[in-house]
Write a sequence for this structure.
């Protein structure tokens, strides 16, 4: 990895000291495993983002995880119908802590142009979202910016986030009981 | 009738079902027949088994809602196709909103199963004799039939959408 930058460190001859939290967060931020939950045109843009021209592997993200158990970042790209809502929530619940959510495109963020009875008006009605990427669909550059914002969050995230009252309260508002999940695993 | 085949089909159906053929027309070259709903199952079965007419393929089943026309608010539309004669025809049955029952044709065409479920899902038309009549596209706990015109198309839970950007006037909703 070379020398750790952007971190508070104590440097000396042949050694570098920092806190474990920060070192782990830095490692995490540079190897986020995304789970692409792509349903429509935003998914196509996301495929372009993954491809060689834009190249997510530059961020240590080339390994797409198609099982929620081994994913850190849920990328929701596309229209989520109300019927699909419970499926998305279940995928989110199955992900292990720590986890983050990137909402790509107008439909995932707010239902987009689909102001209709069958479409969920934004995924934040069923799961907490960390970063929203606007656009219909957003260009790969925008998705990369969203991903980089996720990285900033990951770098600052406490290793003990899952135990904090704040986080439990947040998940509680979505009717997700984190303690129950820890036991069932 | 411009199309000679359409005329032959119409004459044959009229001969067999008489007064149950209520109206007919030719729309864009396609024969449209309105029948008494109670005899539609029988008519489709007869068309299917007929040696010459040989209507062997069910293209689609659809529902239509006409809230203005009293006593015939709902239409069930069957689109049929004869591969042998390369002829398509449409059979319609009108139902009053108080009694939305019509015989299922799943015993004639297995493909009618999902089409009837879809028509039930969106319009609430009940196909008697269907093996498994439940919602197919909408979420299971939906408590209304969304394609009926008494319900607004828009999502009731939306918060952040300005009607002006959707080509609608606020006063109309």
């Amino acid at each position: 990895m070379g020398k750790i930058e952007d971190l508070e460190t104590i440097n000396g001859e042949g050694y570098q000291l920092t806190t474990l939290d920060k070192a782990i967060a830095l490692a995490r931020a540079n190897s986020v495993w995304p789970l692409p939950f792509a349903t429509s045109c935003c998914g196509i843009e996301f495929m372009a983002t993954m491809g060689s021209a834009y190249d997510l592997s530059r961020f240590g993200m080339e390994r797409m995880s198609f099982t929620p158990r081994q994913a850190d970042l849920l990328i929701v790209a596309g229209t989520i119908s109300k019927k699909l809502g419970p499926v998305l929530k279940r995928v989110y619940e199955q992900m292990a802590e720590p986890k983050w959510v990137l909402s790509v495109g107008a439909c995932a963020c707010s239902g987009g142009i689909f102001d209709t009875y069958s479409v969920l008006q934004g995924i934040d009605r069923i799961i907490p979202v960390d970063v929203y990427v606007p656009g219909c669909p957003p260009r790969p550059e925008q998705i990369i910016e969203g991903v980089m914002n996720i990285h900033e969050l990951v770098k600052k995230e406490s290793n003990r986030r899952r135990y904090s009252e704040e986080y439990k309260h947040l998940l509680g508002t979505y009717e997700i009981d984190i303690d129950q999940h820890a036991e069932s695993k | 009738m411009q199309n000679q085949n359409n005329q032959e089909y119409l004459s044959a159906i009229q001969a067999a079902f008489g007064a149950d053929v209520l109206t007919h027309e030719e729309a864009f070259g396609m024969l449209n027949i309105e029948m008494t709903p109670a005899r539609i199952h029988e008519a489709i079965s007869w068309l299917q088994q007929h040696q010459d007419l040989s209507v062997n393929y069910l293209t689609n089943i659809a529902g239509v809602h006409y809230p203005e026309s009293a006593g015939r608010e709902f239409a069930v539309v069957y689109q049929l196709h004869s591969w042998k004669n390369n002829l398509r025809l449409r059979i319609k049955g009108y139902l009053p909103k108080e009694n939305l029952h019509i015989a299922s044709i799943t015993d004639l065409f297995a493909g009618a199963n999902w089409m009837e479920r879809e028509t039930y899902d969106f319009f609430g038309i009940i196909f008697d004799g269907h093996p498994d009549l439940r919602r197919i596209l909408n979420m299971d706990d939906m408590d209304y039939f969304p394609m009926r015109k008494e319900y607004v198309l828009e999502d009731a839970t939306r918060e952040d959408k300005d009607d002006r950007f959707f080509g609608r006037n606020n006063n109309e909703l």
The longest helix of chain B spans residues 4-17. Residues 4-172 of chain B form a domain with the Beta Polymerase; domain 2 fold (CATH 3.30.460.80). The interface with chain A takes residues 137-139, 142, 146, 151, 153-161, 166 of chain B (CB under 8 Å). The helical segments of chain B are 4-17, 40-49, 112-123.
